[in-house]
Amino acid sequence: MSKSAARSIEMVEVGPRDGLQNEAKIVSTADKVELIRRAIAAGSRRIEVASFVNPKRVPQMADAEDVVAQLGKVEGVTRIGLVLNERGAERAIASGLDQLGAVAIASDPFGIRNQGQSSSESVAVAGRIIDFAKAAGRSAQVTIAVSFGCPFGGEVAADHVVEMARQLAAFGPCEIALADTIGVAVPAQVKALVGAVREAVGGLPVRVHFHNTRGTGVANAWAAVEAGASVVDASIGGLGGCPFAPGAAGNVATEDVAYMFARSGVETGLDLDKLLEASHWLAGVMGKDMPSMLARAGGFPKAE
Length: 304
Ligand code: ZN
Description:
This protein is of the alpha/beta class and about 300 residues long. The longest helix has 17 residues, at about 120-135. Helix content is about 40%, strand content about 15%. The protein contains twelve helices and eight strands. The two termini are about 30 Å apart. An eight-stranded parallel β-sheet has the order 1-8-7-6-5-4-3-2. The protein has a single domain (about 10-295), classed as Alpha-Beta Barrel (TIM Barrel), CATH 3.20.20. The chain binds zinc ion. Zinc ion binds near residues 18, 181, 209, 211 and 251.
């Protein structure tokens, strides 16, 4: 690791939101709350607990309010709710969540198909959500989706993502996240884009979100932190298949990323044994093996 890179980073657990929302099997509210509690027990201090989206489009998230209510407030833990519009923001704030996650979209064809918004319209909507959250006394972050490539438009210009980050930073979010929504990024691209976005957003923390669709997710997380990203998303078990790549692996697995950082001297505050327990428990809930490599291989061998 380069001298300038962080010796500690923050990881955001996205399993209860991104991990579950593309799964066909509907998970009970009690099991979602249990997953969040297990993440907290493993040391997670920021968690995407639900998305407040149209339940007709994302049935898995129909119980978002119930998840937040049953979980309750947790001292020292930031509970994030993802929202795509003002209606979602109202619901998330009413539920009592600590932080709102807004989404801007780096490509027009993805924005129009996914949210009925062009890229520039999505920046304006995300800005309004940030304003709305702050007016309600909550913090807000914003994620730039398809930052590294688009399933419909192909290449996404890095300059465009950097300009979006600059515009979004002006609304005063607590961080800017770059998401590889479809899992196409490679480390050299990640290093270049994270570096350019960092320069564009002043001192604002840069967060990254990777899917392991093409096997580059964990390497991308490493490249991002080397380039100065200080917050990394991951999902327990690596759940979170991409709807544009059926059958592909999901989000980078929390335990895989935590293992890499721990063995590399980068502190995450996470307990690997407890993460693995949570991953095995989740495999039982989902009735299938998780994409996580560590769930299969185990951690570093202990001396006999
Ligand atoms: Zn994702």
